[in-house]
Each structure stands twice: as C-alpha cells, then as structure tokens.
Write a structure and sequence with these properties.
The protein is an all-alpha fold. Helix content is 75%, strand content 0%. Helix 28 packs antiparallel against helix 29.
Length: 524
Amino acid sequence: MGFSQDTLRYKVWESEVKDNNQRIQLYTKVIDAKPDEWALYYRGWAYLGQNKLSLAQQDFQLILGAPNSRILPAAPMAGMAQRYFQDGDYKMAIRWADKSIESNHNNAIAYRIRGKSKARIGELTEAAKDLDLALSIEPSNAENYGERASIAWLSEDSKLALINIEKAIALNPKDEKYQVRKVWMEIMSGTTENLESLIKPLSSFKTDDPELNYQLGQIFFLNEEYIISENYFNASLGFYESQIRKDNGYAQRKVREIYPVYLERGLCRQYQEKFRDALNDFSRASQLKPGDPLTYLHMGELHTFQENYIDAIQAYENAFRINPQLVDGWLNLGYSYFQLGKPQEAIVAYERGIRADSTDCMLYNNKGYTLLELKEFAKGIQEINKAIQLCPEAMMPRVSKGEYYFMTEAYDEAISQITLALQMPDSNSASLAAGYFTRGKSYLQKKELKKAVDDFNNTLKIEPHRISAIEQLGIAYYRLEEFCKAYHYFKFALELDVRNEIKQAPVSAYYMGMIQGIVVGGCP
C-alpha cells in the first residue's frame, strides 16, 4: 500500500463531511478500488466517531502491520490510544500514546489523548503538562484548549478553565459543545449573571456525546427544568447502556462517567415525584460504586420524604458505615427513628451527627425536642438554647423553645415565643407549620378556641396531611360545639392514620363516639 494521490481529498472530506457514516462510505469506496493507508487511517477515526472500536482498531492495525508503510506509526498509534480512551481503558490508552510520542515527539494528538487519559485516573498535574505540550505544538487547535479547560476544572482552577474554554470558542465558534461547557462552568462556579439568556439556546442542542448530554442535563437541572434535564440524562445513559449490553466490563471501565449520570437523573426524577424510577437510579449508582456513601444518602432522603422510615434508616446506616465522618444525613436518621417511636435511638443519631459536625444547630434542636418528648425538660431546653446560640437567625429552634414552654404549661410564654418566631425572616415551611401548630395548642389550652382554629388551619395550609393538626382542629371545633365539623376532621385524621405504626390521632375515635351520642341523626 502506498501514499495515494487522493490524500488531499481525504482532508477535504474531513473538513466538509461531518457525518461519520458518509465518511466511512467514501473511504471504503477508495479502499475497495485501491487499498490505501490514508483511507484506512481516516476511516479508523470515522469508526471511532461511531464508537465502532473493533473496526477502528482493525484499520489502525492494518497500517501498523503494513510493510514499507509511508505513514509514520505515530499516527495509527494515536488512533489506538483514542480507541482505548473511548473504551474507558485509560492505562492502555496511555501506553499507546506513549508509543506514539516515542515515534514522533511533535504529535499533539497523542499528547492530548495521553493528557485526558491521565486526567481520568486522577493524575491531573501530569495531564496538564501533556495538554500544555499539545498546545505548544498546535496553538490554534480548539480541542486542545477544550481539554485543557476540563483538566483545569478538575484541578479546581475555575478561572483557568474559563479562560481556556473561551479560547476554544474563539477558535471554533460553531462548535456548540464549547458553548455548553462554558455555560456549565459559569453556573457551577457561580460567575454567571444572565442565566436564562445563556440556557435558552441550549434546549435545542442535539448531540451524540454522552458526557456533553450529561452536562446539558446538569445545566437544566440547576435551572429546575427537570423534564428537559431528564431527557438529556436519558440520552447520555442510552449511549452508556447500549455499550454495557455489548460488553459487561464496560460499566466498570467507565464508572467515573456513568455513575454521576444515574445519581443526578435519580435526583431529577425525585423532584418530579417519580419515586420508583428515582430509587432504581440510586440503586444502579450504588451497584456501580458500592463504596460511595452518597447514593445511600440520597436513598435515605427519598425514603424519608416518602415516610418509609425503616428503609430510610437502613440507607443512612449504610452510608455512615462506609464513612462515619459524613456531616449530612444525621438529622434525617434521627428524625426517622423519632417517627418510628424510638426516641432514644433518635438521640443517639443526633449525638453521632454532632460529633461529625458540631456547628449544625438543627442537630441540637432536634435532640432537644426529643428530650422534651421524654419529659427531660431541663436537658431539652439546654440543647435548644445551644441551637439558638449557634443559629440566632433560625426560626425552628425558637419554635422548639415555644414547645418547651407549652410542655411545661407556660402557655402565655409559649404564645409569646412563637409569635416572635413567626415574625422572623427565616420562614421555611416546616418552621412555620410547627410554629402555628404549637401556638394553636397553646391557645387551645387557654380556651381561646377561635385563635386555635386559625392556627391549626394555617398549619394545614402548609402541611395538609399533618394528622396531629387535623385532630387538634377537630378538638377545637368540638369545644366550640360545632360537632359535625369536628366529626369530619376526626374521621379524616383516622383515615390518614391507618398506615402509621405509631398512631398520631389517639383520641379521634373517642371524640367521634361522643359526637354520635350528641348529634341526633348523625352528621351528613
């Protein structure tokens, strides 16, 4: 095989023909007419563009095995390096890149492939050196700047990453992948101001690149556009899963790329309340990286949200077994134990969390509240006051202090404390609901029944299925002698309480019986 007169035409095809399938057809026609090394070389890269790795390898090996080849071996060796890079075998990619560089020290392609392969295995300093060498050889190559930007980003140098991605855009403004990566970097580093204007054009962007689809998914996820986000995650995983079906070992070779897509698609689906699908994604992520506690934390959060407290506890305990120093998840673990009627286990969980992060005021708050439930009032208020000292701007510890006054029958102090808390700027829904509920109970004890009704209704506007508030509202209406209203609230509370192991409407049945004895003919 010799150097064909058509070589210049191949270079034209590379610049003008963007469809890899069409390129393959063109090169194959040339090879069928007259075997040609350069046609094989370019066809090999076109096969790589379709991720047909075995066919690409076959073409590169034919060139390397040809006697008296006019193509320097550095070129097909670089192709082999890219073949193994795409397969996730980064060590083999580095070996072939080394061979290519040894054959030709001015081989920018080989330096680039070796650099991005080293980045994948965490050798970021060496990776940066390789990309700098690639740039010194090809200073006008946008891909070199794009890869250098990725390495800078992994090295947590967001400023250098943005400088390099902007250079890539300047050199190749028509390549949308650099625009996507720039937007992603700006969002992740918090440097963007006009988010909507940057994101809007990206929704029409179509790509076969799984990593780029993942970045697009992240962008729309951060903008809370979960349907679009999920579509991009689906596209990314569609590619990976097709490769896994062909090769069982592919998933582990590419775990660094595949794992976060499952994880973040799971979150995307959770926020769309596709809970079963979300759990499937978290489970798949945990299978890929069983030693990573993050998936178990997300599983625990999902189960807590769905009130599957036994499953939540198991997930959190799995996470903390892997890494006891984690600072997230302790609050929900304690809450799950508390909801299952295990206050002592809840306190232990909060104390474990405090050892991991002594600055989390909500751990002290929840520990204090649990101690109040155990009638250990002095210890409880001590923990709640610690929470207030740590987070004086937070509403929930102030509400818990109001609960302390309620439990110690200081109802005026409870009402005063809660009223001040409800005026605080930190007005998250859980704190507001808890505040209205505790103040409502205090008004109920003081026989200020209409004020109690107002507060319980305010609680239910925020948390419509809070069983204890529904029951307390029933009691308030009973005492106002609005018996049928009371009856319907007690009935609703019992209907919701059926699935709970620890009953949250303990007196509703009693009051319903009382009402049936009072109201002649029953309630409509």
